[in-house]
Amino acid sequence: MNRTLTDKFGRVHDYLRISLTDRCNLRCVYCMPEEGMQFMENDKHLTFDEIEAVVRMAAKLGVRRLRLTGGEPLVRPNVEKLVSRLSAIPGIEDIALTTNGIFLAQKAEKLRKAGVTRVNISLDSMKQERFAKITRGGDVSKVLAGLEASFRVGFNPIKLNVVLMNRFNDDEVDDFLRMTLEREVHVRFIEYMPIGHDDNGWRDLYLPLEYVKERCEAMGMTPEPTQSVFGNGPAEYFRLPGAKGSFGLIHPVSDHFCESCNRLRLTADGNIKPCLFWQDEFNVRKYIGDEQALEDLFFRALDIKPESHEMAKVLFGEELSHEPTVRRMSQIGG
């Protein structure tokens, strides 16, 4: 009888997020420190053969959906070749990509043909000067070109990830909402999270997502709840009257979504993380080639997965039940 990835809280895990690299061509303020980071050596990254071996095992245990992340996954050479290999694994039904969009215009067609069905594009501002400040040097026109390429090659759905930051990009909420009126795009506003931060600076940028609904009302439009857009994410979706697209709210801090969590994470250096926020992780590398040992490792990771990540306790300065990770988002896989 096949084992399935069900944890002690009854949550079935059919979704694996795979970080292909901790490297990135941008330096976003919420992802990396200003001084930059020491990236791992290339030989520390899981090889494509190793990633395929892990996914084959995961698929036997009921994983059906994959998401490729980073760092920035498109800085890793020949990503489309890995996609082709993963899409051919029995049981894998869907492969998505999270990207900053800088290289997406030139790679979209190859990725689509290889088996990527949908994309999430990080876009925290549509204003070049502000985008450059958030990303520490990025060119927003390249991201917008990647968005257009995504429409052209037929990725569906297309989602935009917008990390909402108090007194930084909150004045652009109206512009993103208007975009959903005109195009079949799904904008997800995400609360600023205290991942890998050893100080309280993130609190100054934190803004509860009720602000987005307030902006809808200020625009004279009442958003209606809508069915979740296809995918694995935790967003609560809404649609403005007459809109072609939708917007979603992802509030891991103020209203966590842990009770419906269905995901495990595989870091670029080969660690299974049962929870984004806690430090617990299990390295797969020495078990690759031993199918039973690798299977057992998945269940060891799942066995210690907590009921909640407790980020709200960080916001209010309360004591935590576990040790938070010291890894930055780029080191874990966003």
TrEMBL record:
UniProt-listed Pfam families: Mob_synth_C, Radical_SAM
Highest taxon above the source species: Bacteria
Coiled-coil features, chain-numbered ranges: none
Catalytic activity reported: GTP + AH2 + S-adenosyl-L-methionine = (8S)-3',8-cyclo-7,8-dihydroguanosine 5'-triphosphate + 5'-deoxyadenosine + L-methionine + A + H(+)
Gene3D superfamilies linked: Aldolase class I (3.20.20.70)
EC number: 4.1.99.22
Binding positions (S-adenosyl-L-methionine): Y30, G71, S122, M193
GO MF annotations, alphabetized: 4 iron, 4 sulfur cluster binding; cyclic pyranopterin monophosphate synthase activity; GTP 3',8'-cyclase activity; GTP binding; metal ion binding; S-adenosyl-L-methionine binding
Any GO BP: Mo-molybdopterin cofactor biosynthetic process
Reported cofactor(s): [4Fe-4S] cluster
Cofactor remark: Binds 2 [4Fe-4S] clusters. Binds 1 [4Fe-4S] cluster coordinated with 3 cysteines and an exchangeable S-adenosyl-L-methionine and 1 [4Fe-4S] cluster coordinated with 3 cysteines and the GTP-derived substrate.
SUPFAM superfamilies, A to Z: Radical SAM enzymes
Keyword ATP-binding: no
Class in the EC hierarchy, top level: lyase
Pathway this chain belongs to: Cofactor biosynthesis; molybdopterin biosynthesis
Task performed by this protein: Catalyzes the cyclization of GTP to (8S)-3',8-cyclo-7,8-dihydroguanosine 5'-triphosphate.
Quaternary data: Monomer and homodimer.
PANTHER family: MOLYBDENUM COFACTOR BIOSYNTHESIS PROTEIN 1, MOLYBDOPTERIN COFACTOR SYNTHESIS PROTEIN A
Entry similarity comment: Belongs to the radical SAM superfamily. MoaA family.
UniProt-recorded name of the protein: GTP 3',8-cyclase
Organism: Effusibacillus lacus
